[in-house]
Amino acid sequence: MDALILARMQFAANITFHILFPTISIGLGWILLFFRWRWLSLRHGDAAAAQGWLDAYRFWTKVFALSFALGVVSGITMSFQFGTNWPGFMERVGDIAGPLLGYEVLTAFFLEAGFLGIMLFGHGKVSEKVHLMSTFFVAFGTSLSAFWILALNSWMQTPAGHEIVDGTFRVKSWFDVIFNPSFPYRFSHMLLASALTCAFLLVGLSAWQVLRNVAQRSAPRVMRVGLTLAAVLIPLQIFVGDLHGLNTLQHQPAKIAAMEGVWDTERGAPLLLFAVPDADKRMNHFEIKVPKLASLILTHEADGEIKGLNSFGDAHPPPLPLFFAFRIMVGMGLLMLATSWLGWWLLRRTRWQPAALPRALLWLFAGMTFSGWVATVAGWYVTEIGRQPFIVYGLIRTADVVSKVPSAMIGLTLVLYLLLYAALIAAYVSVLKYMAEKPEEVLQMDAAEQAATPAGAMTSPVVPGAST
Amino acid sequence: MNVMSFDAALPVIFMALMGVSMLIYVISDGYDLGVGMLMHRATDAEKDVMVASIGPFWDANETWLVLGVGILLVAFPKAHGLVLGELYLPVTLMLVGLTLRGVAFDFRVKAKDTHKQTWDRLFFAGSTLAAVSQGWMLGRYVSGFGSGWNYPLFAGAIAMALPMAYVMMGAAWLVMKTEGELQRRAVSWARIAWAPMVGGMVLISMATPWVSATVRERWFSLPEIIALMAIPLMTGVSLFAVRAVLKTRHVLGPLCWLPFVLLILVFVLGFLGLAYSIYPYVVLDQLTLWQAASSPAALKVILFGTCISVPAIAAYTVFSYRVFRGKTGELKYA
Predict the structure, then answer these.
(1) pTM for this model (two decimals)
(2) ipTM
């Protein structure tokens, strides 16, 4: 295989692995803040409820710590791979990408990493207010991080605010660079994806706990939060996703053509429920279609025109992966909609006692623990593979910036990364399952760790209840 | 001396920022990688204390590496491609090491007891792999990626010496942050690591001018050499002071912080020596700061953010170290 495809595969492997963990930590940071606030507001009143929220906070803080650690280590890998895999990228667009990445590290990454220590080990060592603020800074830092990264990614999809001088990109307006045409849609789509991923993680793990009859104090509360969040956000996500699609049609019509498997420009294009696009024969096999629906969805007119792949010469992405990744994402979204609405309604009928839910439903919840990952990764594949053959859409081809490292070397390290990542994902999932089954041990461990970490500045009396 | 224009000074400012980030990284991740490399010598209970002593800090420590490489990427894109292209394999191995180490941190306390040993081994292996790779990279970088039989030998020597320095830092950290039996053992670990570390440093100081003519001219010409002697002299004094302190019983009491602080001084001096050897190159004999730098416009934008955020980063780093100051307790499972 040639160096370009290997370098792309290696970068894809790393970025796929990486995005799994920020997707969890972006949303979970805010959810932890909510748990924390519920505990603070109830601790002088309803003691049992307060303890449930505290248990939830401490258990999910451990999940956060684990996810954050995996995000950090894979993020470090990425900061190196920009240079090792795409040396030409920074040389050409360094003036734009450099400051955006720099601001991400300076404003967001340090904020998260700096306050994480206090958030994880500082409860009872600093005042409640300082600890709450630390939790807030960590949550805010993860979202700010997403802001800068999504700004750069969106600029690569829909570049704006720059001029090209002797082949090098110069900034004309930072506002236009950051708030480029696709940024608002991609940023909100990703934040919602993160929140939904967390919502289903909350629902799934607490369903598993209910099935195993553990964590009776916290699991019902966590499941209610997760289901409510999912039920509220999934329609919003579908709405934002639709807007994002319309934006893509306007700025990157080739991506839409590949997603929909449209070869020739046509009016009243059908929606293909299934097909196997064939890039060599430039046609689809095994089509199952609904007439005019694609035009209706994309242009909001039954006879709207959709440009076909053939009108872009060779400057279009490969349709096969896009076609399927898009359907996996949408399918997962619809499954999430059905599950969360049905689940919320049934849970409400049990007066929020998940133990009374049908076991089949609990199994469904548990089975969907990582459904957010599937949808998010599929969505990213649509948008990233959909940008090909360009690295900066319409302006720089990926092949022109690839590294000159021998392909055998890239292949060797690719295998190394794939083995490592597969092992780590397996370890992560099995440790989460183990933690969910043994929440008492996790809480004990947490208390022991808190006690062992140097006490230092005690700015308030130790919180009653926090050390039990 | 001519006064440099602001635009021409920008790459120098960024080189300094990058150097300082890397220095902070080497010191801060140095001690926690060192602690990792000492893990296999400790009992199970001691392992828990050792990990707890670095637990609140390691995430932030690694962030300095991201900043350092980030500055290389955004301020000196041409050097980033060149350096990381040359160091492709050791970079990958370092990243694998850092990944294993970082996740073992969290997995070891959350996994089943039967798996804990495996994660502890990975913690040790990851720390060692990362430290050795970094040593090799430093060796290749300092010698300007030269080819010839003596260059790999030189890089190999640094690949051995840097982990020793990290072990020394790790032991000094434990002397400062722990008490009782573990603290006594940390003192003896530090005393064992002292000789190989110093030997490595002497060897490297002698070998660097040998492999690089540029460095040789820099250091061994009059009258510079007289002023420059301060660096090796102070380093020597600090190192002997570390050894002397380790032999007193005060190191277990009120002077427990002294070896760590003296070692930081050694690292800072070593960094100054290195900076003097290399400046104004980003890649020795190949690429100067100005050849590799991004446009002044981009650098100004980043500098603006740096001036605001670096003091804030310093403030909350100090705050975090203050919150977690004092001795690490034993992990007791209720």
Answers:
(1) 0.85
(2) 0.78
